[in-house]
Write a structure and sequence with these properties.
By secondary structure, this protein is mainly alpha-helical. Helices cover about 55% and strands about 0% of the residues. The chain is built from eleven helices and no strands.
Length: about 220
């Protein structure tokens, strides 16, 4: 699902590679068939802001990102931070979420620079799911997304619109979801991790998951 891949990239650190990819991202926003007119308008407006900033002070985007997400724990893109709060025993929580990914054929390598609850990584995961799988996974994070969105809005961050779009989708999914909790039974919270994981931008069709064949 292209929507989630676009949002994932726009939530990443806006380095030179991502800034250079903004025209491709804009083309993807225009051409994607899984994006509503309202979502398309919101994403286009954000891209307009990014383009204007790049023309004036391109490095200011990087500085803004660091101030927003790296310097303020309440803006963390690691969702379990908002779900549980900081706890020294973050390992089991990350293992639970990582094992959930593995059930769908997604393995996070040991040398990855980010942890499983990093929102851009989670959006990459959701982009590889079918509609029902996405519904079950995303609907479990609505309250967390709402808190993050409120925190960013109160700070006047332009990134709040991306969280708002994800939250809106999670609410729609949650409204139709069955009584199934898609989130792992997390008892502890990973500490805030400020890694710089930056997956390559690829606007071709997303790769299929390596799932075991089922009848």
């Amino acid at each position: 699902m292209m929507f989630y891949r676009i949002v994932s990239s726009l939530l990443e650190y806006p380095n030179a590679e991502l800034r250079a990819a903004l025209p491709e991202i804009r083309a993807a926003v225009v051409g994607a068939d899984d994006i509503s007119p309202e979502e398309r308008s919101a994403l286009a407006a954000l891209l307009d802001q990014f383009d204007a900033q790049c023309l004036q002070q391109p490095l200011a985007l990087e500085e803004e990102y660091v101030r927003t997400f790296d310097m303020v724990p309440e803006h963390s893109l690691h969702l379990t931070h908002h779900l549980i709060g900081e706890d020294k025993n973050r390992g089991p929580a990350l293992i639970d979420l990582g094992e959930y990914y593995k059930e769908f054929g997604l393995n996070i390598s040991e040398d990855a620079k980010e942890i499983p609850d990093y929102l851009p990584l989670m959006m990459e995961f959701v982009s590889l799911l079918d509609a029902d799988e996405a519904r079950l996974f995303l609907s479990g994070w609505t309250k967390v997304l709402r808190q993050l969105r409120v925190n960013l809005q109160e700070a006047g961050s332009r990134y709040a619109v991306l969280i708002e779009l994800i939250e809106a989708r999670s609410q729609l999914l949650a409204a139709s979801a069955e009584q199934v909790d898609p989130t792992p039974d997390i008892k502890t919270d990973p500490l805030l991790d400020d890694g710089d994981f930056d997956p390559p931008v690829d606007w071709s069709s997303p790769p299929a998951l390596n799932r075991p064949c089922s009848a």
